[in-house]
Amino acid sequence: MNPMLRNILAALAGLVFGSAVNMGIIMLSSSVIPPPEGVDVTNMESIKAAMHLFEPKHFLFPFLAHALGTFAGAWLAAFIAASYKMRFALGIGIFFLIGGITNVFMLPAPPWFSALDLIAAYIPMAWLGGKVATGKK
């Protein structure tokens, strides 16, 4: 396969797969840790209206969704890429970090969660996904 086509496919596959992992974890979250009464975790307006009801335990799955979604997308992008594997992994991390920053402005989450999420869930997990995919120590 043409290396440029393979790299484009790597980026697209990483974005789609990472997003799917993220959404899968979010969908699973309410069955493991039920949200506050009446909150639909798939609806941004519902979350905004009830954010004051959320306890620290309710932020575990969103963090895992962001971290594992980024890791999975970065891993797949680096695994598929013909060249610049770590750059593709980190590119996925940057893309999801931009989404995380956007989310911070859209949802009134506690500052501790916003900081933890932006610092630990995106670039470090993308780097780790790239390292795992390339097998380099």
Average pLDDT over all residues: 94
CA gyration radius, whole angstroms: 16 Å
Helix content: over 70%
Structural class designation: mainly alpha
Distance between the termini: 28 Å
Tell me the major beta sheet: none
Strand content: under 5%
SSE order: HHHHHH
C-alpha geometry: elongated
How many strand elements? 0
Spans of at least 5 consecutive residues with low confidence: none
Counting DSSP H or I runs of 4 or more residues, the number of helices is 6
- The total tally of domains equals 1
Essential attributes:
single chain, 137 residues, mainly alpha, 74% helix
Task: Characterize the structure shown.
With 137 residues, this protein is mainly alpha-helical. The protein has one domain. Helix content is 74%, strand content 0%. It has 6 helices and no strands. The protein has helices spanning 3-32, 44-50, 60-80, 85-106, 111-120, 123-134. The longest helix is centred in the N-terminal third of the chain and has 30 residues, at 3-32. The two termini are 28 Å apart.
Question: Any chance you could write out the topology, listing elements then pairs?
Answer:
Layout: H1 3-32, H2 44-50, H3 60-80, H4 85-106, H5 111-120, H6 123-134
Please sum up the structure shown.
This protein is mostly helical. Helices cover 74% and strands 0% of the residues.
